Amino acid sequence: MCEPGVQLKSSMCNRKLIGARYFNKNVLAQDSNISFVYNSPRDETGHGTHTTSIATGNCVRGVSYFKYVKGTARGVVPCVRLAVYKVTWSRGGSLTSDVIVGIDQALADGVDIISMLISFRGALPYKDPISITSFAAMEIGVLVYSSAENRGTLTLDNGKTIIGWSLFPGRALLKTSLMYNETLTGCNLPVLLLESANNAIVVCFEGPRINNQISTVIEFAVTGAVFISIDEREEYHFPGVTIKPMDAPTVINYAKSTIDPKATIKFRQTFVGRGAKRAP
Question: Which of 54, 136, 172, 177 has the fewest CB atoms within 10 Å, measured from its CB?
């Protein structure tokens, strides 16, 4: 079924895109005045299109990355057909009920594989709606794969490790001095950063959003940074890691109590089943 809606007609489905549906009744029940970008299966941010292309995109010849590595781009399995079930919204977020209804509909429609690039952070496996519905899918022979998050760890030289968020693509460890200076925690003083944060991981801790801090440390080529913020989803391709404010005292107290504090940031990590015992 190709469900029509804002900027999406049922005629837009084809032999590749054989179905498109959307689920937001519970978001609307929570806020009847909400204004969606596209009240339809249409992608709002491009993330779903991007991840779907990685999995199922057709072959495209003559592709390059700014004229580098020219060749043919394709998804993992370009020959498969695609049914889309939109359950998350840039305005309204992801409600458990809408996600479950969308997955149940996909199973009722007879899909063979479900790909979900969404997650409910902090939910234990036996309470996580993704885990619960995935188990139901497994029972009828449907393969489910989901996002594994983008994590990095900050390990202090006193042995304490903090799990944070990072999109830096490098595999290498960043191990160097850790610098905490109350004058520089805003990470918005370029001259002082250049003078004081050379060959060091600087601690940035000021304000609820970190996009300005990120721009500054990237522009002035700071070696690395620890961003203390609730804004985990801010994207940056820079050797840094974002940790939660609740973990800040561990880092700050260590840096202030040690003559030569050092730290290690490890990138591209995935953690499974935190807070619960893994299945054998």
Answer: 172
CA–CA distance, 213 with 204 (Å, rounded to integer): 7
CATH topology agreement for domains 10-146 and 151-268 = no
Q: Which amino acid is at 41?
A: P
Q: Tokens 């394709």 sit at which residue?
A: 74
Q: How far is CA 69 from CA 64, 72, 131, 214, 260, in A?
A: 6, 10, 39, 29, 43
Distance, in Å, from the CA atom of 204 to the CA atom of 18, rounded to the nearest integer, reads 48
User: Can you list the positions of beta strands (E) in the chain?
Assistant: 17-22, 60-65, 68-73, 82-86, 113-116, 143-146, 151-156, 161-165, 174-179, 200-204, 224-228, 240-243, 262-269
Q: How far is CA 27 from CA 8, 47, 83, 100, in A?
A: 20, 20, 22, 13
Strand partners, 82: 17
Give pLDDT tens digits for 139-166: 999 999 887 666 778 889 999 999 888 8
- Specify the CATH architecture of the domain 10-146: 3-Layer(aba) Sandwich (3.40)
Residue 203 CB: number of other CB atoms within 10 A?
A: 25
The CATH number given to 151-268 is: 3.50.30.30
